[in-house]
C-alpha cells in the first residue's frame, strides 16, 4: 500500500514539474503574456525573462480627460548567457521611454500593459499583465 502512494506522489510531482516548463516556453517572435512574478523562457535557449514589478503607473485613467496619455513602466529581469540584467519597458515608447530594448543579444518588446488604470482605484500588483515578444 505504501509503495502505491509513493508512486502516486512521485507521478504527481513529475507532472507538476514537467508542465510549467512546457507552459512557460515561447518561440522566437511569438507573442506572450506575463503576470508579475511569472517567467517565460525562450524555446531551446538559456534566455528567460521575469516580470518583476511596476516601477510606476502614470497613465491617464480611463474615465478622465488628460492633456497627455501618461506612461507606465514595467520592470523585468532577463537571464541568459552572462549575468542577469534588469530592464524597464514603458507603455509610451520613445527614445527615453523605450517599449523595446536590446539585451543579451535579443530584442525584448512590450506591446501593452493591462489593466488600464481606473479613476480613484489603485490596481493591485498581481492584476498587471505585460503583452510581449522576444526577437
Topology:
Layout: H1 2-23, E1 25-26, E2 32-35, E3 39-42, E4 48-57, E5 72-80, E6 82-90, E7 100-103, E8 106-114, E9 129-134
Task: Supply database-style keywords.
135 residues, 1 helix, Tick-borne Encephalitis virus Glycoprotein, domain 1, 42% strand, disordered N terminus, alpha+beta, four-stranded antiparallel β-sheet, five-stranded mixed β-sheet
Please report the distance between the alpha carbons of the first and last residues: 51 Å
Uncertain segments of ≥5 residues (pLDDT<50)? Answer: 1-23
Mean pLDDT: 83
SS element count, helices: 1
3D architecture notes:
The chain has 135 residues and is of the alpha+beta class. It has one domain: Tick-borne Encephalitis virus Glycoprotein, domain 1 (Sandwich). The protein contains 1 helix and 9 strands; from the N terminus they run αβββββββββ. The chain has one helix at residues 2-23; strands at residues 25-26, 32-35, 39-42, 48-57, 72-80, 82-90, 100-103, 106-114, 129-134. A 5-stranded mixed β-sheet has the order 1-3-4-5-6. Strand 3 and strand 4 form a beta hairpin. The longest helix has 22 residues, at 2-23. The N and C termini lie far apart (51 Å).
Amino acid at each position: 500500500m505504501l509503495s502505491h502512494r509513493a508512486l502516486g506522489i512521485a507521478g504527481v510531482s513529475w507532472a507538476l514539474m514537467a508542465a510549467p516548463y512546457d507552459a512557460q516556453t515561447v518561440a522566437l517572435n511569438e507573442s506572450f503574456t506575463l503576470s508579475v512574478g511569472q517567467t517565460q523562457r525562450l524555446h531551446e535557449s538559456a534566455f528567460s525573462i521575469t516580470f518583476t514589478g511596476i516601477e510606476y503607473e502614470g497613465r491617464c485613467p480611463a474615465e478622465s480627460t488628460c492633456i497627455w496619455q501618461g506612461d507606465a513602466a514595467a520592470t523585468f529581469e532577463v537571464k541568459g548567457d552572462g549575468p542577469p540584467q534588469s530592464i524597464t519597458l514603458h507603455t509610451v515608447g520613445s527614445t527615453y521611454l523605450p517599449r523595446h530594448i536590446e539585451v543579451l543579444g535579443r530584442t525584448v518588446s512590450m506591446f501593452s500593459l493591462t489593466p488600464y488604470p481606473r479613476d480613484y482605484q489603485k490596481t493591485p500588483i498581481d492584476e498587471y499583465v505585460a503583452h510581449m515578444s522576444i526577437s
